[in-house]
């Protein structure tokens, strides 16, 4: 196995799996803007061809089958975003998550090992923790995922830990909390939308009549669930720093959130402010599996990566998502 030498940081060759999806496309765009050479591998099962950023080479293909062939060219690192990521779907059809997330990631890790790719940054999730014992949530909290989505991501984290220890991989897992916002023309667009901010903005743009608030009797100040919304550009900054700080033989894990909690009502109110639309909201039953409060402690990322989230204001996050939504509306 031949390891490429650690590259100069101003120009590296990177494989971005899932670079046609929401977070993957935004991060790929940041990497291209930073001067890196980026190849996107995506099967377009949930991503979009036109979301692959300008300046990236695009390979359409199945991760498990195509990763080896692509990595054989020689890369300085992999950013692994490709995954299934719907909690509800994972409960109904867990086989998709064990196959598409765990098995496919094992194939990727094997290709990384075979071709001596030195670095890996992986999209992990707050869903690896499950119902938190303490809030804000630090990385040494117990990991007890409450659904197959979170369990599949945790299994991959464990695989990565063992590959770092046994094979010298320099690896970082980033555990995202609630990613939101957009980066210009790169943003969130799912065939089936389940996330709060895009749904609320669909009401503002006339695509839905009202937003449902899943429960108003939670043990929180206004009765609705609290989440930690992180701007996707801040997330992309963390990926660039993670690449730079990855150390051979070490698997570092960092939570990424803004460290502030906003309730469902507060999110809807911010969307009203940004859009000027009244956004009708109705109370609906609680959604199965929702914890009342999820807020990250990002102290480790701040200390070790010198990461500082810059766009923590809710109206900034919603404003960027709203511009993205409006730009996509038919004129
Ligand atoms: N919500 C509503 N109405 C909706 C949609 C969502 O009230 O129409 C509420 C949810 O109940 C929750 C909050 O808005 O309280 C945020 O929900 P999202 O679906 O936007 O996000 P989640 O917190 O459920 O999920 C996020 C990530 C997952 C990750 C999870 C756990 O999207 O990938 O956090 O950290 F697994």
Verbal overview:
The protein has about 325 residues and is of the alpha/beta class. The protein is built from 10 helices and 14 strands. The strands form 4 sheets. A 7-stranded parallel beta sheet has the order 3-2-1-4-5-6-11, with helices on both faces. It has a 3-stranded mixed beta sheet with strand order 12-9-14. Strands 7-10 form a two-stranded parallel ribbon. Helix 1 (about 20-35) crosses helix 7 (about 230-245) and helix 6 crosses helix 10 (about 315-330). The longest helix has 22 residues, at about 95-115. The chain is globular. The N and C termini lie far apart (about 55 Å). The site of uridine-5'-diphosphate-4-deoxy-4-fluoro-alpha-D-galactose has 23 residues, from helix 5, helix 6 and strand 8.
Contiguous helical run count: 10
Total beta strand runs: 14
Q: Describe the biggest sheet?
A: 7 strands, parallel
Low-confidence stretches: 1-8
Specify the structural class.
Answer: alpha/beta
Bound molecules: uridine-5'-diphosphate-4-deoxy-4-fluoro-alpha-D-galactose
Helical percentage: 25-40%
Mean pLDDT level:
95
Secondary-structure element sequence? EHEEHEHHEHEEHEEEHEEHEEHH
Question: Order of strands side by side in the largest beta sheet?
Answer: 3-2-1-4-5-6-11
For the terminal residues, how far apart are their CA atoms? 54 Å
Question: What is the overall silhouette?
Answer: globular
How large a portion of the residues is in β-strands, by DSSP E? 15-25%
Radius of gyration: 19 Å
Write a short abstract of this structure.
With 331 residues, this protein is α/β, with parallel strands linked by helices.
């Amino acid at each position: 196995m031949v390891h490429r030498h650690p590259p100069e940081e101003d120009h590296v060759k990177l494989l971005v799996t899932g670079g046609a999806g929401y977070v993957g496309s935004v991060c790929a765009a940041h990497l291209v803007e930073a001067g890196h050479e980026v190849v996107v591998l995506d099967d377009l099962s949930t991503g979009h061809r036109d979301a692959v950023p300008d300046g990236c080479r695009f390979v359409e293909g199945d991760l498990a089958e195509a990763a080896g062939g692509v990595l054989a060219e020689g890369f300085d690192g992999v950013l692994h975003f490709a995954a299934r990521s719907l909690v509800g779907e994972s409960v109904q059809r867990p086989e998709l998550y064990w196959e598409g997330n765990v098995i496919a990631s094992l194939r990727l890790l094997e290709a990384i090992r075979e071709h001596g790719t030195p670095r890996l940054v992986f999209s992990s999730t707050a869903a690896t923790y499950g119902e938190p014992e303490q809030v804000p949530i630090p990385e040494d909290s117990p990991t007890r995922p409450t659904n197959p989505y979170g369990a599949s991501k945790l299994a991959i984290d464990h695989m990565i830990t063992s590959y770092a220890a046994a094979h010298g991989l320099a690896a970082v897992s980033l555990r995202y909390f609630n990613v939101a916002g957009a980066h210009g023309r790169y943003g969130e667009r799912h065939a089936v939308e389940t996330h709060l901010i895009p749904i609320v903005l669909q009401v503002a743009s006339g695509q839905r009549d009202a937003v449902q608030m899943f429960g108003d009797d939670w043990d929180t100040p206004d009765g609705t669930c609290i989440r930690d919304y992180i701007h996707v550009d801040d997330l992309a900054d963390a990926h660039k720093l993670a690449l730079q700080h990855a150390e051979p033989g070490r698997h570092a894990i960092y939570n990424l959130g803004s460290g502030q909690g906003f309730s469902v009502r507060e999110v809807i109110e911010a969307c009203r402010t940004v859009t000027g639309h009244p956004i009708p909201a109705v109370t609906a039953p609680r959604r199965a599996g929702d914890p009342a409060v999820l807020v990250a402690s990002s102290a480790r990322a701040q200390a070790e990566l010198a990461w500082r989230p810059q766009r923590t204001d809710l109206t900034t996050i919603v404003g960027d998502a709203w511009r993205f939504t409006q730009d996509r509306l038919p004129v």
